[in-house]
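Ticket reopened. Same input as before:
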Amino acid sequence: EIVMTQSPATLSVSPGERATLSCRASQSVSSNLAWYQQKPGQAPRLLISGASTRATGIPARFSGSGSGTEFTLTISSLQSEDFAVYSCQQYDDWPHTFGGGTKVEIK
Amino acid sequence: EVQLVESGGGLVQFGGSLRLSCAASGFTFSSYAMTWVRQAPGKGLEWVSGIGESGSGNTHYADSVRGRFTISRDNSKSTLYLQMNSLRAEDTAVYYCAKKGDYYWYMDVWGKGTTVTVSS
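Engineering reply: fixed in the latest deploy. New output:
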């Protein structure tokens, strides 16, 4: 199966600063990669699909990039509501594996 | 409003069985593939199983559940199911159902989840 590795595990950022999250696949997944946001006690929410396409209603401060094995989620200016756990998922091959997640916390 | 509501979770003994349901509304259920994802306490998301629009012959499983779990759907009832047999402690998790996106297998709508606890 394709192993998805996210880094860092925890990212401490001040409000207003930029956050850069990484996701690496053990083999190419083309652009078949999604990013999800999850807050405590809530279900995940789709942010990005196709590596770079924002989902409906997602603010422009969220952007995704990459293809193949290396992907990045960037939050350009962190707002208070953005502190959460972010997970990447590949849907190029079965099983559709997730990364372990990156927790973005307030610095 | 597009909505997914899971049910059927609970406390079950090691080796027991449980059937989860996911009731869909607000969209044409029969036109979308569906997925189950779980999250163990304090852990990340784990993809569990997926099923195509028509169901039969188009099912997929994580290695950790293959042979023990069965995904199915009843399009006439707009309901997704997960039959879980031979349950283990490591199956303890919140189980989410999710709807496939319009074109690819990302998940654009999620339910709130149902909790399964396997006791030894």
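Chain B has a mean pLDDT of 96. The longest strand of chain B covers residues 18-25. Please confirm and we'll close it.
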